[in-house]
Automatic annotation (TrEMBL):
Segments traversing the membrane: 25-50
NAD among keywords: no
Protein name listed in UniProt: Class E sortase
Residue ranges of the region described as Disordered: 80-99
Amino acid sequence: MSSPPVTVRPPAHARTARTPTASSIAYGIVGVVGELLITVGVLLLGFLVWQLWWTDVEGNAAQAEIVRDLGFAPPVVAEEDDGVAEPRRDEPPVIDEPPHATSFATLQVPRWVGEQERPISQGTDRPTVLDVLGIGHYEGTAMPGGVGNFALAGHRVTFGKPFNRIEELQVDDALVVRTADTWYVYKVTEMEVVTPADVRVIAPVPNEPGVEPTERFITLTTCHPMFSARERYIVHGVLDYWAPVSDGTPAELLG
């Protein structure tokens, strides 16, 4: 009687690998995509933290240092008075327009309780002024106290956001500008929202291009709405009075 045939199996390492199924391939792709999305999410979160928080931390510190570096002397307070500067409405002194990126004045807004004094520098480009110095002065517009429109720009979010609270301003609120020797107290007259192309708002007479100015205006410009550059939020004002720093401090800053 013959023996049954013997089946010889190939060694394990020589067996043919199992062909991947469509479902296993799909699961692999989903896993890779998921890991990529997590990585992108972490990077995006880090960017948002830097953009919306850390740039403010750095910006506020840098702008406070710029104000200190301006070296403006504190107002002189005579023993016989209360330290309030007497308003003057005659011809104010006006400094010359400085070179680009030069810090020459500061802005304080009593309505924005708790906000620090902000430096004003020449120019409005982001890399050399708005992102690093704070508030920018539109070159070619009037200087503080000058006839015409003293026009300013500032960030509403990020980089210290000096104009973050601009929508809180109301008609007759004070905008206090200081140079080395002089206070200029402007009062808010109106607010408006325009498109970025509406440069008429910084004309010598706001919104009236070509008209010769006879008054001393101020204009604040910033992006609108919050976290968007689709429009511009505009605040206009007019000079109420000026005073020498040596005479004391404007009443609006003393509460």
